[in-house]
Design brief:
162 residues, 5-stranded parallel beta sheet, alpha/beta, Rossmann fold, single chain
Length: 162
């Protein structure tokens, strides 16, 4: 079974979890990168600019992918939570890559609450089978070892069930 972990990460939390998931199930990694990053990590302005982009449903152009997501049997898709939702790069991915009849597991990283982030992602993925969802609160700050184990256990569970 071919497995791909797709993610966007501004400050490293989502990338950290994505890497742990990929390690656990032997998956390929696809980090989404905007051609022009307008949100600066570790700055107060990220809340304004990131929130504005989410509210305006912006879809920034992404750097070309190394992997074709349509060629995989199982996808894990991850995002940070911005303005109580998934990020604009993930919005671009979900809007441009036409996934159909895929098994997909969703994950997010946040500073306090995931709100409806995963449910909103699921709505964008109609026509696919969502087989799992999980969230992590600032995994790089809040017990990275425990988050690593939780992510790996979850990924193996998801992968074994397919």
């Amino acid at each position: 079974m071919k497995v791909l972990v797709v993610y966007y990460s501004l400050e490293g939390n989502t990338k950290f979890i994505a890497q742990k998931i990929a390690e656990a199930v032997g998956a390929d990694l696809l980090g989404l990168k905007p051609k022009k990053e307008t949100v600066k990590p570790h700055s107060l302005s990220k809340y304004f600019w990131g929130g504005k982009q989410v509210m305006m449903k912006e879809k920034p152009e992404l750097v070309s992918f190394d992997h074709n997501p349509e060629e995989y049997d199982l996808l894990f898709i991850g995002t940070p939570v911005w303005a109580w939702n998934f990020t604009p790069p993930v919005n671009t991915f979900l809007s441009t890559v036409k996934l159909k009849d895929k098994k997909i597991a969703l994950f997010c990283c946040h500073g306090g609450a995931k709100n409806k982030t995963l449910e909103n992602m699921e709505a964008q993925l109609a026509g696919n089978k969502i087989i799992g969802k999980i969230d992590f609160k600032e995994p790089l700050k809040n017990n990275p070892e425990e988050c690593t184990e939780q992510a790996k256990r979850w990924a193996i569970e998801i992968s074994s069930a397919t």
